[in-house]
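Appendix B: a complete holo record

For completeness, this appendix reproduces one full record from the ligand-bound portion of the collection. The bound molecule is zinc ion. The inputs are the chain sequence and the ligand SMILES; the output is the full three-dimensional arrangement of the complex, encoded as structure tokens. No fields have been trimmed.
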Amino acid sequence: MRRLAEAWDRGEIGPTAFLPAPGRIGLASLSADLGVRAESVSFLACGALRPVLDRYFAACRVHLAERHWDLGVCPFCGAPPGFGDLTDTGQRRLACHVCGGGWVFPRLRCPFCGAQSAKDLVRLEAEEKEEGYFISACRQCRVYVKELDRRIRWNAGSALVEDWGSPHFDMVALREGYRRPIASLIQLARRP
Ligand SMILES: [Zn+2]
Ligand SMILES: [Zn+2]
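The structure of the chain with zinc ion bound, as generated:
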């Protein structure tokens, strides 16, 4: 982090270094040259860019019509989803932690690789089940996303708050060998 701060102070990197890119968050050189872990880069992107990007995209959010975007990356900033919500109408809405955007996505499709086969899509179970919360994982790409059924948990917090507040589900998924593209708090606590 010190090397990152020094590069920032010298003007070698700026906010754009943390923007999403295909397959990752931020410039690859942040990890390669400065030794910053990918998890830390994604956390910094969410923490630092989101307030700015949320305002930046505010005026164009309304133009995203339902079902007009069926990719597994945020239609606004290009980041992978950080959380999933089942809404009142039973739609699956993926949430972007980097810019605060969201988009409707098919329930029976992996957002990360597009797998749609029932044998590839699994729900991982925590030892202590909490009604409304579930972990959607994909056997093809080995990526997972936590989700929340808001018809059951109508008074739950925002997607980011729910995500950061449920590290025990990340433990379950990570232990079973799945990963997530946007780091969870528990991955930040882990020593490299
Ligand atoms: Zn976004
Ligand atoms: Zn997949």
